[in-house]
């Protein structure tokens, strides 16, 4: 499974390198927008249950939220096993403090990782079989860049 994720990441990084970036001022070129709420969460799932996403936090969301800042929601389906979710923050010339949260299908917070600036985040949580969960990526200190973060998920 590790090899699979590594392969997916390599493919995504290559695709990102040749794609025009930061074209859309509202989304920063994030192809997962609009995903600024639970209702608009983008579904992530592969046949093997592993995920690998490149997206970014950039400026104001396409739909207004309480904070008026970009945040990204993703939906995954539990498979009755431990799942490890990691957020690799983008490189930037300034400090970035991105945090990671996990919610259940009733929007209750069930896990989080809130390390400080320039630290990656990780959540390991048992996900009930066939239950929906939501991953939230946001910027703690209102720092944004069109540089992509890497969100991965894999069964443990
Ligand atoms: Ca985004
Ligand atoms: Ca968003």
TrEMBL record:
Keywords: Signal. Gene3D superfamilies: 2.60.120.380. The keyword Signal applies. It comes from the Bacteria. Residues 1-25 form the signal peptide. This is Peptidase C-terminal archaeal/bacterial domain-containing protein.
């Amino acid at each position: 499974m590790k090899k699979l994720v590594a392969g997916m990441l390599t493919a995504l990084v290559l695709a990102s390198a040749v794609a025009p970036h930061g074209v859309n001022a509202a989304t920063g070129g994030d192809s997962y927008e609009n995903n600024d709420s639970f209702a608009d969460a983008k579904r992530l799932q592969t046949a093997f249950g592993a995920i690998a996403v490149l997206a970014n936090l950039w400026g104001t969301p396409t739909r207004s939220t309480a904070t008026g800042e970009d945040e990204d929601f993703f939906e995954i389906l539990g498979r009755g096993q431990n799942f490890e979710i990691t957020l690799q923050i983008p490189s930037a010339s300034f400090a970035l403090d991105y945090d990671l949260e996990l919610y259940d299908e009733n929007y209750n917070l069930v896990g989080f990782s809130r390390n400080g600036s320039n630290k990656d985040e990780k959540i390991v949580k048992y996900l009930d079989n066939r239950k929906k969960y939501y991953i939230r990526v946001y910027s703690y200190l209102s720092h944004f860049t069109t540089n992509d973060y890497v969100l991965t998920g894999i069964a443990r």
